[in-house]
TrEMBL record:
Annotated VWFA domain residues: 166-344
Keyword tRNA processing among record annotations: no
Taxonomic path: Bacteria, Bacillati, Actinomycetota, Actinomycetes, Micrococcales
Region feature Disordered, mapped onto this chain: 26-82
Leader sequence residues: 1-24
Official protein name in the record: DUF3520 domain-containing protein
Keyword check for DNA-binding: no
Amino acid sequence: MGTRHRTPAVLTAAALAVTLAGCAAGSDGGNGSSGQAYDGGRTYAPGPNGAAEEPADPSPGEQEGDLRYQGLTDPTRDPLSTFALDIDTGSYTRFRDATRNGTRLPSSEVRTEEFVNYFRQDYTPPRDGLAVSIDAATLPFQRDHRIVRVGVSSAVPDSRERPDADLALVVDCSGSMGEYGKMETTKAALRTLVANLRPTDRVAMVCYSTEAEIALRPTPAGDRESVEDAIDGLGPRGSTNAAAGLEAGYDLATDMRREGRMTRVVLVSDGVANVGERTPGGILERIGAETRHGVNLVSVGVGIATYNDTLLEQLADQGDGWHVYVDTAAEAERVFATGLTGSLVVAATDAKAQVEFDPRQVAGYRLIGYENRAVADEDFRDDAVDGGEVFAGHTTTALYDVALRGSQRSSRPFVTATVRYQDERGVPVERTGDLADAECADDLVDAPPRLQQDLVVALLTDHLVGGPWSEYVGPQDLRDYAAVLPGLLDGDADVAELADLVDEAVA
């Protein structure tokens, strides 16, 4: 069994200390490498091709062929790819905001899985928990490669059955929030949130700058006047003490926590932090402890300039929640009206995926994205190792670039995906799917439209970071692939917008 130790999903105290000490916008602390082009990593060459149905077992010694696959993992050495599930979308909306403002998103902030997860998929949701599905298509620019889509979907929430919710809103009121309309965007988002809560839900609010202040004690959402007055009173002032704000927010969440109700902390910030004399260890431990009690953290980013994506994304991971970025009033509606209020229910906890590749058929594979969500292969069934939380009604997608050995279409599965999670009783559940090459679409035009959509998204992120597909797909090719999507997915405004953004970004 292979073991790959990359950046863990857990934020260490030392890492948080560096981040909270005032990372600048576009820092190199996120996914990627100092804004440089894609690092292909290991390079492997497969042995001679075997027959499709009964290929010879390859050995690590058969690595001297003419084909060399840069950036692909050799399944004869490591057939397993393991990662914690993730439903964040903030990286894509950051890209959209940057593109509209005529700037470029730093490559360290480009996380392919967050781009892909922003868009709707075509998975059939399960009746309960999570379900896994796999499909694939031949890459038009590499005929011996497949784009493999591993999709995980959760049961659709029934808003009538969800428990009442208690939300502790932690709002950044530092001086940097007075720039570029950040505070007005924050207020609009919070008003949208409150307007979509039940009268029996409760809201409390912390406003933090140099120190943290209670802006609203726990109040029923039905008392709209009191809540609106607290939102209207928010304003930028002083420096930033994010640790104090989170500490106060979790204190409020603890006070509100009641049996039979859901408790969430929602952090709204540009992520630019200066914690003064405080150390981060305590708040880090507090987030972890409260997560074990069912209090998840949702981080909401605002502000194209002076913005620290790394802090907000990693805090959400630490708090077993999700990270989003709000750039428009429409996005605030999407996140706070239908996204947050519609998915307060956790469908699965400690969710991990493990994808296995048959080395007799697969010459190499590459997981596209999820770099900072990797889990050691042997920890897949270790429930003491934290996975990701998946909220009801969400989907998450992992894409793989897979190089096959043979030219014949085999009916034997070359890829098997298993998702493992704990249900509402804390009982581990596993669900599995597999796929043979004979089941893959031989031409991209025959693939499901959502798979074609996801390939375009992956090609876009590859373009943004100078990835390995850039050798085969130029800017005009990317434009051409994207231009097809609005016709395939007629009526999907997000896809039509994607095609426009691709055109702007590659220009």
